[in-house]
Amino acid sequence: MLSYYNKLSSEVYDLDKPIGHSFGDIEFYSKRLASISGPILEPATGTGRVLIPLLEEGFKVDGFDISNEMLTICRENCHKRGLNPNLFEAKMESFSLKAKYEAIIIPSGTFLLLYERERSIQALHNFYRHLVDGGKLIIDIFLQTEIDLGKVSTRTWTCKNGDVITLETTNVEVDYINQFLISHGRYEKWRNGTLVQTELERFPLRWYGIEEFRLLLERIGFEHIVVSENYQFGKYPENPHVPVTFEAVKRE
Questions:
Q1: N or C terminus of the chain: which is more exposed, having fewer CB within 10 Å?
Q2: pLDDT band for position 171 (50/70/90)?
Q3: What pTM did the predictor assign?
Q4: Do 86 and 58 lie in a common domain?
Q5: Domain named Methyltransferase: which ranges (predicted)?
Q6: How far apart are alpha carbons 36 and 249 in whole angstroms?
């Protein structure tokens, strides 16, 4: 069975989006969390791209991920910087903790990996349960602007030791009714012209409409929902090609 964020894809993520690399999201999230002194949770924390800068600013952040490979890299990145956050393996829709958080953050559209509608709704309910009254959920999504089924794209990365990793991605399935796209990726690692490792990936991605997502948050119980375009707080989206961020508050 194909899955995502195994060894090679996690290595590529760390190369492509190193610690502190920002799309404007790190600065945005830092500002939106400035009033929070208590615990924060980052589901799908990945290799620590956002987690580590927030920890270094003094925020108290726990993180989890479905991928043990991503968490291994995240722990290594934290260790290099003298950090020891609470990191654990879990799923967004089913994690269960005694702790409650003042904020839960999901940058960079990672929430959209929950491509099945019911699982994504379960995850939002789960976030709500794990927030204190008045706690914030801050979450990024991306709009789907074009789907080119069968399109093949390739990318290449060079590792520190000189190895080369290539990725060939193909869009293989789209479900317009249930609003998701499936792509397949083939990772290959080359050393001195010899193929030394390969990995196949099935990468799902869901999409939502802006008002659809707002209504979903309201139905779950969130209030004071603010929609922002491209990390400009309160600017209602006009450009469909940039991130859309929702900030919502659990009812007190």
A1: N
A2: very high
A3: 0.93
A4: yes
A5: 40-135
A6: 13
